[in-house]
Amino acid sequence: xxxxxxxxxxxxxxxxxxxxxxxxxxxxxxxxxxxxxxxxxxxxxxxxxxxxxxxxxxxxxxxxxxxxxxxxxxxxxxxxxxxxxxxxxxxxxxxxxxxxxxxxxxxxxxxxxxxxxxxxxxxxxxxxxxxxxxxxxxxxxxxxxxxxxxxxxxxxxxxxxxxxxxxxxxxxxxxxxxxxxxxxxxxxxxxxxxxxxxxxxxxxxxxxxxxxxxxxxxxxxxxxxxxxxxxxxxxxxxxxxxxxxxxxxxxxxxxxxxxxxxxxxxxxxxxxxxxxxxxxxxxxxxxxxxxxxxxxxxxxxxxxxxxxxxxxxxxxxxxxxxxxxxxxxxxxxxxxxxxxxxxxxxxxxxxxxxxxxxxxxxxxxxxxxxxxxxxxxxxxxxxxxxxxxxxxxxxxxxxxxxxxxxxxxxxxxxxxxxxxxxxxxxxxxxxxxxxxxxxxxxxxxxxxxxxxxxxxxxxxxxxxxxxxxxxxxxxxxxxxxxxxxxxxxxxxxxxxxxxxxxxxxxxxxxxxxxxxxxxxxxxxxxxxxxxxxxxxxxxxxxxxxxxxxxxxxxxxxxxxxxxxxxxxxxxxxxxxxxxxxxxxxxxxxxxxxxxxxxxxxxxxxxxxxxxxxxxxxxxxxxxx
Length: 624
Fold this sequence. Notes:
By secondary structure, this protein is mainly alpha-helical. Helix content is about 35%, strand content about 5%. It contains 23 helices and 12 strands. Helix 5 (about 110-125) packs antiparallel against helix 6, helix 9 runs antiparallel to helix 10 and helix 17 (about 420-435) runs antiparallel to helix 20 (about 500-510). The protein is globular and about 75 Å long. It starts with 9 loop residues before the first helix and ends in an 11-residue tail after the last helix.
């Protein structure tokens, strides 16, 4: 049975440690008193656990957002949200129109992150005066700086420019510090990089089970510094006409931070790509999985999640994968569907045909038979017809395990895993090579994408089992080749060069429904990929599986289809079109501030009012 570490309770035990006999001199029992609390590493470890619960939520413990997995990451072109059963539906389905629309009106993220900043700053203020070894001081200061960097990364991703505060305690009347206006994003990202570099240098290589260590720091450093570097490259200093380009010197520094973080993990030789994919998301224990850098543990009777049930017997009413996502998977020969001679879905792109001889990860991610919600024919179905099984343990399902019902799944959640680090590395290496860094090479592909492609997968339930893996890719001038054939994807965005297009495709396939795609589209300045077309001519971001209704006698008339060859008809063959009738659809116009502003949330109106009441100004983001 898995062990579970509990840190709640340590805080109260430490907080009540007082040597005074006089009742009036005793420390309050409900507060951590600074003078008596900062004693040893036990107190530091207890204090820091609040950081963990803030950022390492895993699959959460709810029926709706799943900690960012599955429907929790749906403001993208991979997943079509079709339910109003989430708090920020307007943000996900449409582009908000005012700073009080949907998620833009929420001030909690702003205040919660600044609470973490202050908590980290308190640690940094108190640790130097503690009677612990210098090694311990450096380690715990590294912990504080890692989480401070994570908090500011969250703020910058959301709001761009934000006030940067390094002091732990500010006098209540020192309004110039308390109510300073926002610092430039580049300035804050430099501070984030400083914190990550310190943490990477001084944190322990191993500090116990499920405690942040050097590899965890390097992993998140690679993720967040890649985000900031690419966002600043493709957007500049902000959004809209006032944005200014960021110098290659600054960008190179940030890309190098992403590379340094990734290389610290890669060069540890503690992680490797195994011959599993579905098991990364559906195992009762991830403790010994070589791909997992950090995970959240779930245990029956203590904490479980509902994501398994939602991928098992329940209808996936929150939404489903788009045909745009399905079409992005390569064929087994390593070529895109528009180029590969092995693609069998050209004339009949049904699941039966189009799933044949594809990247084997597709079989560990989606059910390879049609499952249409509200069709009158299927259970455990999806509104797009593509039912997810990435988070489903099929052995548990067939065995009648209670784990596939309700909030009863003890499957551990991967917080960050090795394949992402390899993908962060290869993207950062390519990007830095384009702005004066060392030339991109075959070696960069071999230690990243080709390393991931060593994974050999077998399709669950297939008899006899067939081992499948994707072929290696090679550099061919300014292109990528596979088996000596240059990839020439007819669906490639012409503004993205061929090598980068394939790097981004690999990332999309590997990390689908893991909470990364929304961030990726934001940092690449590619929200136009979210456009949905018109009600009469929807595009792939709101279309599902292709079906011929004649193959499904009795199918409900409510299942609407769209035929690109005959868009004005009411077809009996075509793609499931959930929003084909009356729903408003997304429309993003590149260069238009009313669209561009959506790359950043508005500064919460409540915070602007607080500043104003004190006689200070908190500036708003462009366009809001």
